[in-house]
Amino acid sequence: MRRRIGIAVLVLALLAVSGAGAWWFRMRGDQGPMFRTALIKRGDLTATISATGTVEPEDVVDVGAQVGGMILSFGKDLSGETIDYGSAVQADTVLARIDDSLYAAAVETAKAQVKQADANSISADANVLQMKAKLLQASQDWERAKRLGPSDALAQSAYDQYQANYEVAKASLAAAEAAVEQAKAAVAQSKAALHTAQINLGYCTIKTPVKGVIIDRRVNIGQTVVSSLSAPSLFLIAKDLKRIRVWISVNEADIGSISEGQSATFTVDAFPAQVFEGTVRKIRLNATMSQNVVTYTVEVSTDNRDGKLLPYLTANVKFTTGFRQDVLLVPNAALRWTPRPGQIAPDTRRAPHPHAGSRRKEDASGTVRERSVIWVAQGRFVRPVHVKTGLSDGAMTEVEARELSEDMPVVVGENVKEAQAGPGAERSPFTPQLGRGPRQSQSGQAGSGGERER
């Protein structure tokens, strides 16, 4: 009997020790820090604006066809290869040839018309000479008739005939001279028609007007080109791929921070590890609106001597809008976090609310300084530190205050487990409260995970 009692006492003692140990470890865990902190760092800060754009050749020439016809052949590039995508060409290099049968025939017809017009002109000149001779004869007869006058020697009818012959001869000469002018005009017209036919024949051989690289060929041999009001595009030529531009769409809220000559960096998916540098060359004024969002196109010029950047790559661009060197930096979370009233140290609770009367002020460098506050842990409470904020890169913000120093911890959030622990703390109604008394119906604060002072 005594042996059984001893065993029972031993078991109860072990259970008591185990319960005490579990309680001690849990209470020890509850004594961890309530607040999550981050250290103030000193360093350099670069503020940027991010946007996306497209890599474009600096100058592009669209070569079209001014006459219609079937493509018979392509020309040769600088290396002797048939013209194709990526071919390097010099100015006046033959790109393609269009069937010129009809245009060659039109040239021959125009040449024949020129010869005919020349012959008509010669005939008109000869007719003028003939009319001049007739006028001379008629003039002499009329002069003799006037000296004799109507008499027995010269009948009245003969007199009138000489006068009429003279007038007809003058009119015929004038008509002949007009025919000469008409013949000359016909010659000029036929020569113009010949010139037009020759030009159209020349258009059958398509040449590049500039030196560059063919980035697009839009026709094939055997394809029929139809020339209409707008010349069909056959080839797209980039004049110089060593100079590349990036066309970026920038939101209207950010366009005020961008100016000509400003530096920019960008990456492309083809070379994700390489950062390319450029300079803002132009801000286009013709804004576009899509779904009530206004954007402006900004052109960034960059050097492409190595030829890595290909036309129409997507670029992820960052414009540098500000730079600070050797300044104190805090995470943006430290500026966003705000404690509950019960978490503020008692000796600072009567102070004015840190966000009351916030003011924005621009310093001598043009940086907008805004008064804000960060919080420093003080045991289970926090105390405010008023600061002036400067540039921000989206993750870190420049701050100024006499109380701040490098490696000083500032509060960026709360530890959910610790904020829910301890007597009187808020607990989820669905969390088991073993050994803590009856469950209390309380609601936690969304997003903070900290305790609320009653």
Topology diagram in text:
Elements (H helix, E strand, L loop, with lengths): L1 H29 L4 E5 L1 E17 L2 E5 L4 E6 L13 E2 L4 E5 L2 H48 L7 H48 L1 E3 L4 E6 L6 E2 L7 E6 L4 E9 L11 E6 L2 E13 L4 E3 L2 E11 L10 E18 H5 L23 E3 L5 E11 L2 E12 L3 E5 L8 E6 L1 H4 L35
Antiparallel strand pairs: 1-21, 2-11, 2-16, 3-10, 4-6, 4-9, 5-8, 6-7, 8-10, 11-15, 12-13, 12-16, 13-15, 14-15, 16-20, 17-18, 18-19, 19-20
Describe the 3D structure.
The chain has 5 helices and 21 strands. A 6-stranded antiparallel beta barrel has the order 2-11-15-13-12-16. The chain has a 4-stranded antiparallel sheet with strand order 3-10-8-5, with no helix packed on it. A 4-stranded antiparallel sheet has the order 7-6-4-9. The two termini are 55 Å apart. Among the domains are: 76 residues, RNA polymerase II/Efflux pump adaptor protein, barrel-sandwich hybrid domain (OB fold (Dihydrolipoamide Acetyltransferase, E2P)), CATH 2.40.50; 102 residues. Helix 2 runs antiparallel to helix 3. Helix content is 30%, strand content 34%. It is an alpha+beta fold.
How would you summarize this macromolecular structure in one to three sentences?
By secondary structure, this protein is of the alpha+beta class. The chain is 30% helix and 34% strand.
Task: Jot down its keywords.
454 residues, alpha+beta, OB fold (Dihydrolipoamide Acetyltransferase, E2P), 6-stranded antiparallel β-barrel, 4-stranded antiparallel β-sheet, elongated, disordered C terminus
Largest sheet: 6 strands, antiparallel, barrel
Number of strands: 21
SS strand fraction: 25-35%
Rounded Rg: 49 Å
Judged by helices, strands and strand pairing, the structural class is: alpha+beta
How confident is the prediction overall: mean pLDDT? 81
Order of helices and strands: HEEEEEEHHEEEEEEEEEEHEEEEEH
Calculate the terminal CA-CA distance, rounded to whole Å.
55 Å
**Arrangement of strands in the largest sheet:** 2-11-15-13-12-16
> Total number of helical segments?
5
Task: State the helicity in percent bands.
Answer: 25-40%
Globally, the shape reads: elongated
Q: What oligomeric state best describes the polypeptide chains here?
A: single chain
Which residue ranges are poorly predicted, with pLDDT under 50 across at least 5 consecutive positions?
352-360, 421-454
